[in-house]
Design brief:
about 45% helix; homodimer; five-stranded mixed sheet; alpha/beta
């Protein structure tokens, strides 16, 4: 089977056939059809499987590619799907159909929903996550917050995705202090709260930081998957066995209505096959622009059947009001991690606000 | 000095002040202003330096950031500039003013224009580059092309950016054969043609491939900088000392008129400070959509003064007609690498076409 890519093209059916053929060559041979031997063209070029009108000057083309061109390599997958044609106009990737051979090579999440449930001991209810912030606090201040959130019963306590190795809270000191604080809280509560530091950095530094996190006792990390390169997700998982929560930093560049990669394909399919155990996205009704339909589509792509690839947790975020979490549980179901940050920090005492949130979610989930 | 970012906002001056303040907080504290202590806000939040109207419902805001937030880290730089706000709308990064402290930390190209001239021995004229393609040829076939191009006097012979580790031409075999072919041609001509393989892959594989390339005798490599993560460029340079030619795969996602990062900032400033010795971009008049003004702006950002950072070679590409190269030399000047691919392959014999091109450029450059 071939990798089938559904492109929405901002042109009429009449023009779309030629445009689809151009994409099929641009993304593989990178030569015009008449400069390539027919044998190589037949074997290597993308194949235009169908072209149809979507009305109002828009068309849909399905192009299939030899999965062997990907080499099981995430940067090359992005390059094949959208590398050169990103520099053209009016081309949107709206869907992907994966051959099992490619899914097996890419592998996907090592823990996924089942693995994160096992680590946290949270069953039959959504998980709650919050962020340590803001940038500018010291490592002891962040650790104190981490302790309070873990005591309150938050399942996952992650670094804000802008915490790197700033002098205010250097990476190693922050990780050791926050992890120790969460472990201490777990000792007091008998709980299994986890601390996920942000390890995003260049290729060498990132793997070093993930190693520091593991040595400190962390069971997972946060990665800004696009700034780091999507291959970072699987590389960290392979090197350390840590769970990966992927952050959508920069992803919005791809979400133009007529050009780019649709949110459910990028944050759903691609972040999942890259190996994310959870994928953070900006929930509808918060301070970003996703519709509820987009969020539902991301959830479906993260959790739905995908050959041998395990399901990943959707992590809606980006300004969810703590008081509205029961509403979102009803919409999204239990296999969701709710990341509530600012809404807790807007309260006089974020820890008390977290306790109220935990109680409300347990009440709502277990009736 | 602070890192000053010029944002173009798709809103009137009246709304722009609040939008700028929102960006300043979103990109740093990631909390609303009233949830942060005034001391932390003052120290950590971006500072809105100016807001002015650009007319027709557009505004310009300059926001400055503490360069310490970047930690000399390229993924964190991208995250600070555009991470979360990529998920909002109508925000374009149109300019950057760099503090020397940050430039020194990021370092930029190790070889740059002067270093690549030294490696190739090409002085007082533009360099010529071509690509080994298409995907689907075997390693011996690609090596035969490499030999012919090196014999013809092409300075830089690079892998097509889609060549990864496909079974048709596995990475190690391809690199060893192509490098050997170019060395053999150099022995025959007394020239200094260089072969740059594409090493783009995940963080671990990429550094391994760069090591294989160096061991084979290559002096530089090609990296798809955004799929790999911008930090890959500096990591490979630091680990191997190889020259880096960065390819703009995926970059077009950022080039929407009202939302993203302008081409001259992304491919000019950011690819340069990341350590690219040459930056490939789609030239005006080819099969992509850049205007001549955009190309000139990229050239200026790559070559202009930038504190302690060396100049990088602009590498216009993407469908340049070999016959038009003298025209582009007059437009762009000698400190340019012209990447001519398809136009050579469109001839019956690409090697003979390359010889004609080399002769034309030398005639044109030396009168």
């Amino acid at each position: 089977m071939r990798l089938r890519v559904t492109y929405h093209l901002a042109c009429s059916r009449r023009v779309a056939a030629a445009k689809a053929r151009d994409i099929a060559f641009e993304q593989t041979l990178e030569l015009p059809e008449d400069a390539v031997s027919p044998e190589v063209a037949e074997r290597v070029a993308g194949r235009v499987e169908s072209v149809e009108s979507l009305g109002r000057g828009r068309s849909r083309a399905v192009i299939s590619f030899d999965p062997g061109a990907v080499c099981g390599d995430l940067p090359q997958l992005l390059n094949l799907l959208f590398g050169n044609i990103s520099l053209k106009a009016g081309i949107l990737i709206a869907g992907l159909d994966w051959p099992d051979e490619l899914l097996a090579a890419l592998r996907g999440p090592r823990l996924g929903i089942a693995g994160l449930r096992e680590l946290t001991g949270a069953r039959g209810r959504p998980l709650l996550c919050t962020a340590l912030k803001p940038l500018g606090l010291t490592a002891p201040q962040l650790a104190q917050l981490a302790y309070g959130f873990a005591r309150a019963g938050i399942d996952l306590i992650k670094d804000d995705h802008s915490l790197a190795d700033q002098t205010t809270a250097p990476f190693r000191e922050r990780v050791e202090r926050c992890q120790e604080a969460v472990a201490r809280a777990n000792d007091a509560t008998g709980g299994n709260a986890l601390y996920f530091p942000n390890v995003t950095s260049g290729p060498v530094g990132m793997l070093e930081r993930a190693g520091v996190a593991r040595a400190a006792g962390c069971r997972g990390v946060v990665v800004n998957a696009l700034p780091a390169g999507l291959g970072a997700v699987s590389a960290i998982a392979a090197a350390t066995g840590l769970a990966i929560m992927s952050h959508p930093s920069l992803a919005g560049a791809f979400f133009q209505p007529a050009h780019g990669i649709s949110p459910e394909v990028l944050l759903g399919d691609l972040f999942r096959v890259a190996g994310s155990d959870g994928v953070i996205y900006p929930n509808a009704g918060g301070r970003f622009t996703f519709s509820e339909a987009t969020c539902a589509a991301i959830n479906a792509r993260l959790r739905g059947p995908l050959g041998p690839v395990s399901p990943s947790f959707p992590v809606p975020a980006g300004g969810i009001d703590a008081a509205r979490v029961p509403h979102w549980i009803d919409r999204y179901g239990a296999d969701t991690i709710f990341l509530i940050g600012g809404s807790l920090y807007a309260q006089a005492d974020p820890t008390t606000a977290a306790e109220r949130l935990v109680a409300a979610v347990r009440r709502h989930s277990h009736g």
